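Supplementary material to the annual report.
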Amino acid sequence: MLRVLIVEAAKLRRSLVLLLCAAAPAMVALLGALMFQQKEGPDQPWAHYLLSASAIWSFFMLPMTVTALTVLVAQLEHGPKFWNHLLALPVPRASFFAAKIVTVVLLVAAMSALLFVLTPALGWLGDAAAPGRRLTGELALGQFAATLAKMFGGALLLIALQLWVALRFRSFVPPLVLGIGGTFVAVVATGSDYGPYFPWLIATNALATDPGRAQMALGVGLAGGLIAAAAMLVDLSRREIV
Amino acid sequence: MMALAVETSALSRRFGRQEAVCGVDLAVPQGSVYGFLGQNGAGKTTTIRMLLGLLRPSGGSARLFGHDVGRDRIAAVRLAGALVETPCHYDHLTGRENLAITARLLSAAQGEIDRVLEIVELAGAADRRVGGYSLGMRQRLGVARALIGRPRLLILDEPTNGLDPQGIRDMRRLIATLAEGEGVTVFVSSHILAEVEQTATHVGLMHQGRLLLQGRACALKIGRSKRIVFDVDRPEPVVEMLRDAGLAARAGGAGRVLIEPASVDSADVAAINFMLVELGIRVFGIEVSEPSLEQIFHDTIEQADLLLAA
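Predicted assembly:
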């Protein structure tokens, strides 16, 4: 399994995947800083600033990036029909698909970590560039990290579902339709009661004021993610390459 | 009994109502170069996919070196390297990086990469991105990938597709080198007979999902009619005379008279020649040739089509 994972990492070299993983959190952090710097008004607490970045990340950028990321990772094999080679090797088939999901999960974790670093860093720069306006109060980095970690955990179900569809279909259209459709629903129905159970809204529910709801969302995301990942491995390992 | 590298028994595959492969019994001896021939859509690639475990058979079984592909795919394909359909590579990586991926997956030594690059003569371009490779280079890189880990069986599906004449010659030479130099059993599919006729020791002919014939290339010619060509100054009376004698003669253009199929021996040829000279016909040359595999295959397919239509 380890060698398949190393190979998966080697394939990302010079691919657009790493660019996407750097650009997505950078855009959220940059947008937050620019909005703060451009907008006039009273001082803003750091807590609000970080909450705003977390919200944009969870209900829009995270699901869209997971959609694009899973499509890119799957198309690495679909595009050149590389499954013909990989699945004819004396290597257990499930290990290829397991390596894919582990890679995507690690990349989403890396994006979350990058957002954790960039948001306060660019906020500080925005603060310095807007003399009339300040970011005030405590910079609660621990709380910010915990929120991003919950969002990451809750996104496991979304990652598993998007990757499953992206790997199952040779065309990139079905996973794109699924991802765009799910994100659209998440944007227009952010406060829905079904949020903790809807894969594209689970991460956002990490911000729920009701601790029970946030806990439920995390539980559904983690458990659902593990179940969906196991089902994906079984399904894809049995599929034929026509 | 000769040990077999590939053996299938009543191998079949349906796609819905369409029978893509029907009751195929392949027998590929170890150390042979087996030309797996047939027109496009004859069922060659579907058969190859079943040999590699990419497709499950609807019926029958396939064995590689005695290992059943359906029951123990990993043991069966461990001794095989394959190039299926178009060569597939990661265009954003270099040739060497592409090979390193397969080498790592097979736990092959890093020296393997240089070895296979040398065999396919791609060492000079190994550090260039594959996106910039020509089709011929991509094909050769595909063969190099299939050779990693020194497989005892090399399965090449239409390896000359899209290659120019020079590329086809290079591929033919490469196949011959692998079989002779490395002792690899080469199973190569093609829809162009001439491509494999010169290198194949054994051939199998697929048509509409069925294996019409297989065997040693030279053995297939035994018992088949020869073709005789007389190069004369006046072909028309010669054709008429030979037809009167009950031979299947026809004018071949440029003073040539063809007798095909010709169930005659060398004494008959001498007698015909003597008769022509006696009649005052000038004979410039006589050519007695074995039937080509192409002709044999053409006849076999024609007979199969007639049987299917009946």
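The beta strands of chain A are 44-45, 135-136.
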